[in-house]
């Protein structure tokens, strides 16, 4: 089994964090291909940056999905996820929906702990779009400027304190550590939190393996079938091939 | 007052429909600049096509917004709208949210009449994202293949029949005619429907004028402030300038 | 174009505030007719007072709507709005729904800043009835006794502080200044708030102009058609004429 | 114990139906005072008629509540209910909320069977305002013109058929027979329906007795306390006395 | 009329509290039969304990319901309620749904005051399952260890303080005192709270009397009809008889 | 890794179906222990039967969980799941929540296809309790009497037709085949449906493996911590030991 994991941000340091956690989480025999956005920003925390990341991800997915059994959009907030689910012939998963799926198997209400104040409104909208707002206990976030490649090292105690407040004050029954820069932190915090803690990357890797194993099938009709073939222009070759239903040359 | 109206699709024929209705709807003294997506598909009806349209729209908006008082994303479904609202210094409006705003001033529950079966699931998600799903009576759509530049001419009676069923069977108190290819149809159907009928283009033009007149201010903090300045790479110049907060050269 | 603006309260001083903001907001060529409730209370902050204001408004609307292109119910909370929308042959708008329509075009979640503690529960129910509770970040209100004709003068700084807390603590992306006694305050606060700020009177005036321009049509069937003709008794002449579908003598 | 039961419509024949069912339902020792609206329409089926009925009910309630232990607003749709609950010193109940309270004790999802097509949209909004829309399976209604004083006699079989369809097609676990003209029909249909059937008048009478017995207390603060004393003018004496907190002369 | 009141907990001291309040609340002529769970825990505050209490209650209900007109599940949280409503030929009521029904007749939003921190999440889910989460202002709870038979005596002032905070800080318009160990406290607090206060036991007793009086009928089809007859094994005789539709020997 | 899979029904033939699908779905190295309810009914389709199944499951789980890494409650509807999640030291999963988690990774809206009319209302409530009602497109069910051990064999075409209608008429983007008697059918229907199809047993087995691999931790505080130790009586030894936090003798 081979997974294509795409970092929608341009930060190679974050790609490395993602890759490390993906490899630690994967079952034996699961291969990981990493790709980093060719264009975009260092860290997506807004809807506009997500729009850019979605397109960068789409290009990489179109170009590289062949030979993979599933694709993971490896930024919390899942830029482009629903669109790619239509267009690609294999399962596509995002960090947020994967983490929420795990969280829902562990408790009724979850809190999200995030790395910037700005990112919270967007995350809330993504939870709403997933239809799970009733199960969201709270979102809490760091309020310090960040060195994106070393959030965990510098802010572990502050993140832990946010988790504890979410449990004590907001009634969180599960904690979701949000954002690719926190990839692997759940592993580090094991045993230090009074409720289960969930990570997006490891959730996505495992759920991707599950979807590949279950073989539920790809939609051929309805809203997740591939987009209808129609005139297009000006698109990168790989995207045009997807839309035109041409196999890769 | 000058409005920049962007067609996120590549169809010049649809741009012409939009422009005609925009000019008919605008107040005296309101200028209209039209732009058509440089890349993308002929007509957006899926989440993946919307993702592409969002990026194409973002490029045009970044490049051309200077000198305009507001920007209109002229595809139903509002590709890229929330992101552009963050990034641009002027109000940004979409056809869907504008039509829904009008509809909500005319009745409690509305139905959307659309031009393709496929488009319905995506529209429903957009209504959900607008927080208005409780006011959605139904979505009904044509089930015939379309010549996108001449939907109104060929399908007027079928569209009228869909409206009537929405009123009679679904309890619609207002009808929203959805999709830029239907721009102007509301005008043509005036007096033929038993409930108010709303059009996205004219709604957006008028609401844009209203926002310009009211001068509510641009967010400088919170989630609709411009994205934080941070490293980026590989972006079209105009988008990079927006992100870097540089005035246009 | 001529708008009938009805103050459902008996306070002439508030009528003057409303009129001033309505005239400042209206397009050239839009005439404003003001009416003040013939009976009722000085300021509506409860459901019972709203019930009274609704009936007072209905009488004035029935008596004076002829010769106007739209009617505005100029108290936040929109007393009698939905009923009048059925009964009158022209568009009817309220301050709350108009302000919310504007707010929804400017951000995803809004807070309402109001002038009395008591008023908050009722406002919340009005937002619920508009189907927008998911987009309500918070309601905050002054906690001091008020001289209703001079709220802005005496409490501007306190109101500004409430706005700032709504943005900072509640995640408000837009502020709605609620209540006719605050008419015009949004204009005065321009540039002093970090998010867009919306006013009910100016929103209603502009949206009324928009509905007149768009000519969406009046419902002739469904729940916003005029009430079925049936026996009635004891009603003011103007209301009886409306119910009996008689033109004004 | 003495209950004041107000018919917000002007139809004496409906008052008689209500009174008969109220007396059949009341416990021994419970006295019933009936009042019929002094002004208004023959049968409320729209928001505008409800606005009128609310004011007519408020006048009667203000004038006659003294000496009663609770007040019942005896039209489905509960015109003026929330306002009167603030203003009166005794419990106030409506037919809709009382029927829904009963229905919720008998099953999870209920359907409402009503006597006119037009009335359905308004009933739906009342269920929404009660926060119970998730438990509403459907609303079904007669589609024939009505002689309001003899709906039951002429339409019993049609009403029964609507109930059966609600159970079979909509999943109704309880049926609510809606509208004062149907008062007593539930009693007549006993044993002919496959699910429990609820009537508004008998529910309201019994719940009124319960509230009197439980003595939960009247709000003296919060949004159901009496409205703050403030200037008023032009009101019927009884309403003015309520607002001014004067005992009846 | 004869009511079977089942304490799903094993605490005889709580049974005594329930019985005392039930007798105080019942109408003249209403007889009360008390039963205490034969197995289970001293006080249910978790979903697991509720699962046990549900089965203990089902056994007692199956064994003892004959000769009673209604059955009351006398633990807040209503363990087993929906299942028993299917299986028994008479109305079945729970403390939570009964208290919520009363609260909904007294105000729009209610708070629940409970006796342990742990119990809050489960209560919240029960309110959700009742479809009333939009009307829940808050849940507040004691944070001290409890002697379950004497909560009221030791904690009356602390409970009163929680009620006051719910009104002042959370906007509660009605207070629900939750948990059988608080049975009767509402009576003791009468006149000391600024909003109506509701008790589960007295609400359930009165609503049971109402359902018996109204005779709405037992479902014979749909999801609250008795379970379909099918093979079973290993069940207590009384439950097996219920499932097999055998009259009691 | 070793999973304890409990059939809350007494049907050995269904246990065999579950076991076969569990073994087909499990990763190499995952062991499966099957247990069948010692008491209860042949097939759970009502809330009352679920109450019984929950207790039967709790006994088996308490008695047999030692030596297992996770427990699966193998009836759709998840009887007892939330309670067991509190009480057991290992992850506990149900068929419904597992199938919904899978479905949510494959599309936005899903339909459930079930094997009896009666079961639908209860399934709907379970989806509500999972907070996913907004994503439920429909529930459709067979309307024929069943031989529970051979539903698939006799009804495959009818089930397929229900799936197709859910896609075409209800907008289902994913199909969930519900009920342990359908275990394995998703596998048989592969390639015959136009949207992805999900099975509860295989989803639960795979998600159980995922939770074991991710090691998110067991709640030690909050509402999913083990119930507080308190007096109990009359319980099966294994349950008493769980509640008393005693290791197994």
Question: How would you concisely characterize the structure shown here?
Answer:
The structure is a homohexamer of 249-residue chains. Chain A is α/β, with parallel strands linked by helices and 249 residues long. Chain A has helices at 12-25, 47-64, 81-87, 95-104, 119-129, 151-170, 185-189, 200-214, 237-243; strands spanning 2-7, 31-36, 40-41, 70-73, 92-94, 110-114, 136-141, 174-177, 197-199, 232-233.
Task: Please provide a written account of the structure.
6 copies of one chain form a homohexamer. With 249 residues, chain A is α/β, with parallel strands linked by helices. The first copy, chain A, folds into 2 domains: 133 residues, Rossmann fold (3-Layer(aba) Sandwich); 104 residues, Rossmann fold. Helix content of chain A is 43%, strand content 16%. A 4-stranded parallel beta sheet of chain A has the order 2-1-4-5, sandwiched between helices. In chain A, strands 7-6-8-9 form a 4-stranded parallel beta sheet, with helices on both faces. In chain A, α1 crosses α8, α2 packs across α9 and α4 crosses α8. The longest helix of chain A is centred in the middle third of the chain and has 20 residues. The radius of gyration of chain A is 18 Å and the shape is globular. Chain A starts with a strand and ends in a 6-residue tail after the last helix. The mean pLDDT of chain A is 95. Chains in contact: A-B, A-C, A-E, A-F, B-C, B-D, B-F, C-D, C-E, D-E, D-F, E-F. The interface between A and F is large, with 55 and 55 residues.
